[in-house]
């Protein structure tokens, strides 16, 4: 059973050091477990490619069975194991956009350091189509996002509702903008992956045509682009615009077209619905966002 736990951690982390950290083991202990697994199954199981350990075809065949066993263990044998945030050294992994990191991550870190001082965070950005598998494999604990996550099999909870605002260079002279001016400018639009819709897709949905000069997967570069290019404009979630404005990076103006609310949610896999650490993290996220909204 201990070897299957090690195998499961290697499947998730694809790295011996990170798998050891996840299980609270030394790197040498994890390497020893991998050697025993290789001897038992007479297969390399994981092959180093660059900085990652890629599973062999035999390991990939084993993966679904091991994940099923580990899920049953978590569900049936460890159901009574309570997560203690004051003593835990767990590394929580979150999938979020650079917008989430900029606007909400500082508040989460502040809260986490107070209530779980020995826990750590790891963030990542994944294409929307990869999020389900990453949650199922335990590579991430929660995914934080909006409409770009569309998986009916995942549990979800609303955390926050965004409105939209537009941002322009600080040298832009007007504080308000009419629709004609808005549509005459060159636009920056964020698309998080090839298969996602634009964050500001509602503009086209209104039947309006605009000149999209730049499509980018990143929010955080927009202020630097606007600073050097005052003829450009971007429409982003209002809280992000306010964050940029606090750093004197841009000017926030009202978007002169009707904009819908953007629902920010946290998503998790059914495998971890009853896992005590995941439950605690979800509750913490909700508390942090509830205070943010108040």
TrEMBL record:
Source superkingdom: Bacteria
InterPro entries: LysR-type_TF (IPR050389), LysR_HTH_N (IPR000847), LysR_subst-bd (IPR005119), WH-like_DNA-bd_sf (IPR036388), WH_DNA-bd_sf (IPR036390)
Keywords: DNA-binding, Transcription, Transcription regulation
Residue ranges annotated for the HTH lysR-type domain, each copy included: 1-56
TM region positions: none
Similarity remark: Belongs to the LysR transcriptional regulatory family.
Name of the protein in question: LysR family transcriptional regulator
């Amino acid at each position: 059973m201990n070897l299957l736990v090690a195998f499961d951690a290697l499947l998730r982390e694809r790295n011996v050091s990170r798998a050891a950290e996840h299980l609270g083991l030394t790197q040498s202990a994890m390497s020893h477990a991998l050697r025993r697994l290789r001897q038992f199954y007479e297969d390399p199981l994981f092959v180093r490619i660059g900085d990652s350990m890629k599973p062999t075809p035999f390991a990939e065949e084993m993966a679904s069975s091991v994940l099923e066993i580990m899920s049953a263990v978590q569900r049936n044998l460890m159901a009574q194991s309570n997560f203690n945030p004051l003593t835990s050294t767990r590394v929580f992994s979150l999938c979020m956009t650079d917008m989430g990191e900029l606007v909400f991550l500082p508040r989460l870190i502040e809260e986490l350091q107070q209530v779980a001082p020995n826990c750590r965070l790891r963030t990542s950005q994944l294409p929307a189509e990869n999020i389900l598998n990453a949650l199922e494999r335990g590579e991430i604990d929660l995914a934080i996002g909006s409409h770009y996550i569309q998986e009916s099999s995942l549990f979800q909870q609303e955390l926050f509702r965004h409105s939209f605002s537009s941002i322009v260079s600080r040298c832009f002279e007007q504080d308000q903008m009419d629709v004609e001016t808005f549509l005459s400018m060159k636009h920056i639009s964020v698309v998080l992956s090839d298969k996602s819709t634009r964050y500001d897709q509602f503009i086209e949905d209104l039947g309006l045509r605009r000149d999209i000069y730049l499509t980018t997967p990143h929010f955080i570069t927009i202020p630097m682009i606007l600073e050097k290019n005052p003829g450009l404009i971007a429409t982003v979630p209002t809280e992000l615009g306010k964050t940029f404005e606090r750093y004197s990076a841009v000017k926030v103006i009202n978007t002169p077209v009707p904009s819908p609310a953007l629902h920010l949610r946290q998503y998790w896999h059914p495998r971890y619905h009853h896992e005590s650490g995941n439950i605690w993290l979800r509750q913490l996220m909700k508390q942090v966002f509830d205070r943010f909204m108040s």
